[in-house]
Design brief:
- The chain has about 220 residues and is mostly helical.
- It has 9 helices and no strands.
- Helix 2 packs across helix 3 and helix 4 packs antiparallel against helix 5.
- The chain starts with a helix and ends with a helix.
């Protein structure tokens, strides 16, 4: 049985591992789909700090057109927050209200980025436990077979259950390790995007304060 499974594909492994193996196959497919979709969404979400800094510097000079041009075509969360903040300030909103609007926009963007990352964490946690469950089931099967054989220490009697036990353990780890690593890396990228949102708002609000001070001095 072991040789056949190793020579076959992943479906042969699942068949050899039993119901737990099929469940781990489903989890692996869900995990891969989540990793692919969230990577495409999250990885481009950070960066572009030079454009936002240029926009803040232009806003401090009172050059709205240059500030908007510095952010033109940029679609990162921090860029959208900065664009919205410029629009609010240009519309005459007090800085406190404009900052509250920016905070709400940033929270909404981060919520979209973070969605379903928890699912990867759950998969990374549950897959090894399912593998352990398969291990326990396999060992129970082995000892049941040993008991049915009258206690004879026959390796052939134990081989089937031990194979299932080892296979489910390995499958659980194979599913869990990429899911856990991807969740950690993507969460770090989301945290970077959150920091950039905060920096963009702070830079523009500081620029607005400089602009107001310059107007008051004239």
């Amino acid at each position: 049985m072991g040789g056949l499974a190793l020579e076959g594909g992943i479906l042969d492994w699942a068949a050899a591992a039993g119901p737990v193996g099929w469940l781990l196959i489903v989890l692996s497919l869900v995990s891969l789909a989540l990793i692919a979709s969230k990577t495409l969404q999250i990885m481009p979400a950070a960066g572009g700090g030079a454009g936002r800094l240029a926009a803040a510097e232009a806003w401090a000079r009172g050059d709205r057109a240059a500030a908007e041009a510095a952010l033109a075509g940029a679609d990162r969360p921090a860029d959208r927050v900065a664009t919205g903040l410029i629009a609010d300030l240009a519309a005459g909103l007090p800085p406190e209200r404009a900052a509250a609007h920016a905070e709400a926009r940033g929270a909404e963007a981060l919520s979209r980025l973070s969605s379903q990352l928890r699912s990867l964490d759950v998969i990374a946690l549950s897959a090894p436990l399912l593998g352990l469950l398969g291990t326990v089931i396999g060992m129970i099967s082995s000892f049941q077979s040993l008991e049915a054989a009258g206690g004879a220490a026959n390796a052939a009697v134990l081989a089937g259950g031990i194979w299932t036990a080892l296979l489910t353990t390995a499958m659980g780890l194979v599913v869990a390790i990429p899911a856990g690593a991807a969740a950690a890396l993507l969460s770090a990228r989301v945290e970077r995007a959150a920091g950039e949102i905060e920096d963009a708002a702070r830079q523009l609000l500081s620029a607005e304060a400089e602009r107001a001070a310059a107007r008051g001095a004239t």
